Amino acid sequence: MKKNKFFLFIIIFLLALIIPFTHVKAASDNYLQKVKDKGTLVVGTSADYPPYEFTAKENGKTKYVGLDISIAERFAKDIGVKLKIRNMNFDSLLVALETHKIDMVIAGMNPTPERKTSVAFSKIYYTGNQYMLINKSDAARFKKIKDFKGQTIGAQTGSLQYSLVKQQMKGNDVKGLAKLNDLVIALQSHKVNAVAMEEATAKAFAENNRNLKVINPGFDIDASQTGSAIGFSKGADSLVTAANKTIDEIKKDNLINKKYIPAAAKNMTANSKKKSMMNYWTYFAKGIEYTLIITVVSVFFGFVLGTLFALMRLSRSKFVHGLAVSYIEFVRGTPLMVQVMFVYFGVGAVIQSLPALVAGIIAVSLNSAAYVAEVIRSGIESIPSGQTEASRSLGMSQKETYRYIIIPQALKNIWPALGNEFVTLIKESSIVSIIGVTDLMYQMQLVQSATYKGVIPIFITMVIYFLMTFGLSKVLGYFEGKMKHA
């Protein structure tokens, strides 16, 4: 009977998470008017794809530039609104579009038949070939697809290139990663033998790294899968029509070849001249600021909620106890990355104004609360029952016993474990970069994109994380020593 009640609590908890989606209604085609009413066009992109979209440093600030950004700026101007860029992983863009976190996707995306089932695409605005990026030392070995038999090929997950490698290079292992910068690092460290990319992007990386070379392996490409288009929510015909009008005007004036690509090349050249990491210290400083904000706020709410759930789990009420157990076990049984994506994309589908930073803090706080709850529970249960009996015999209430007797002693016992959870939180907060929160990990990826360097930004980020966690460990150790002598 007890087991049945426990499973009932689990079902109720899961239903509480799912029910919000039942209120999401299909929107009528007033998409264009909605964008005009709010005065902002929110565009999703993955800014690691030069010359389509990448970052440049201007007056110490991050600026999104490239062919796609220029088209997005022109489109926003044509419909009379301001442009807002949201940078995230390529394979998260369509999820963000589906949950209306963004109004459109422009990221060198190919309008494949599979994508067309859930996405409304504009006309093709640019077409490029599909190439391979290899190490120059392997130029004599690899020239065509057949030369790569048995080798490991890298490609961006969710991209046309990934599908091409899977379909046409079946004798090869495919390594899919979300960021092209990571794939280039894998190539340079010989973890992969080649990276499949769109022509212009492959040439951009090769031109800024003398150890890399571009080849045309001879992919057999369906004409319907080539070219880049703008993606909109299914049914957003008004936005598609407006975008097509802009694309027609851009093509008529040949702006892509005359203006947009030369501007992108100029920014790429400027980036290559500023490869020193000192030029990007403001990026790392901003990343540290956001990482500390996320950590401090999440520690506070994680501790408060963790204490609450610990007391609920120790409650004599079966309902309260079961609710706490259900929450703790569910959160500890699912990855933090999934929880972050669920809060931002899932809950965000209902609360569309939910910012990425707030969603990240909520997810990290809720995750931390489950672990803190178990730490506090174990500390409370470690106190001998005689302490409670003695305090009650002195006329203290249960609330006073917990406040003055149990909690202070338990806190002294669990401080090392609690401190370890707080230190871990600094590192785990890096997960929020997948939804576009500008924490330290996110800023590191921007530096990689801007400088075409992969390892050095990683090393600097690793050192910064160490300094933050080491500093916190010393502070926690100081207070632990104070408790021992109290």
TrEMBL record:
GO terms for molecular function: transmembrane transporter activity. The chain crosses the membrane at residues 290-311, 342-364, 454-479. Residues 1-26 form the signal peptide. One of its GO terms (biological process) is amino acid transport. The keyword Transmembrane applies. InterPro entries: AA_ABC_transptr_permease_3TM (IPR010065), ArtM/GltK/GlnP/TcyL/YhdX-like (IPR043429), MetI-like (IPR000515), MetI-like_sf (IPR035906), Solute-binding_3/MltF_N (IPR001638). GO terms for cellular component: ATP-binding cassette (ABC) transporter complex. Keywords: Amino-acid transport, Cell membrane, Membrane, Signal, Transmembrane, Transmembrane helix, Transport. It is a multi-pass membrane protein. Residues 288-468 form the ABC transmembrane type-1 domain. It comes from the Bacteria. It is found in: Cell membrane. Belongs to the binding-protein-dependent transport system permease family. HisMQ subfamily. This is Amino acid ABC transporter. It comes from Liquorilactobacillus aquaticus DSM 21051. The lineage of its organism: Bacteria, Bacillati, Bacillota, Bacilli, Lactobacillales.
